[in-house]
Design goal:
mainly alpha; 5 helices
């Protein structure tokens, strides 16, 4: 990945899975430089110890800055005994002794830092997407359950309305039968009453039975 005008990587820096140690390895950078390690060797050594690219980059920068404060007096003290034996143009200058950080290495470190941050952001985005998918699945399940519940309530409501309608019809039928019986009684009752009265009159007119 090339960002901010940075060129392609010359060497892929291995990704460290373990948690990086705390603090900056400034002392280790200074020690390895005193032993003659190149910057590539310093970086690889620190990466093998678990330091991330940001820690290594900051430690190298601090060593470079602090080196400018004590290397200049030290170089002057070392050069004074030999000033008489060398021509002025042969004396190494501070700029020649203090080698700047190679541009390629800075680009690689910057890209490594960007890659690490991008991977962290990508991991967070992936977690958010997974949470979103799970939430949508749960919402879908809840919607299906609500639809099923609504269908069950509608079916129960229709069943209750059907039963109530059936009861109403039965009550209506009973009322109709009662009205029909009432009409029959209205027709039969006068005749029945007349017959009862006639029998009563006949019983009054009949002679009492003789006593023997």
């Amino acid at each position: 990945m090339a960002l901010f005008g940075i060129g392609k990587k010359k060497k892929e820096i291995p990704e460290q899975q373990a948690a990086a140690p705390g603090g900056l390895p400034t002392d280790q950078v200074m020690s390895m430089r005193q032993q003659g390690y190149t910057d590539d060797q310093v970086i690889q050594n620190l990466q093998s110890q678990g330091y991330n690219s940001s820690q290594i980059f900051n430690a190298i920068n601090q060593v470079n800055i602090s080196g400018s404060q004590y290397q200049m007096p030290q170089m002057e003290q070392q050069q004074q005994p030999y000033m008489e034996n060398y021509m002025p143009e042969q004396a190494p200058s501070y700029e020649e002794a203090q080698m700047p950080e190679p541009k390629e290495r800075i680009e690689e470190l910057a890209e490594a830092i960007i890659d690490e941050k991008w991977k962290e952001i990508s991991a967070d985005i992936t977690k958010v997407i997974e949470w979103k998918d799970k939430t949508e699945q749960r919402i879908t399940v809840l919607e299906q359950q609500l639809i099923s519940l609504k269908a069950g309530i509608d079916s129960l409501q229709k069943s209750l309305l059907g039963k109530i309608g059936q009861y109403d019809q039965n009550i209506t039928d009973v009322g109709t039968e009662i009205k029909a019986m009432e009409k029959v009684f209205q027709k039969v009752l006068p005749s029945l009453t007349e017959n009862v009265n006639r029998l009563e009159r006949m019983s009054k007119k009949a002679p009492p039975p003789s006593k023997r």
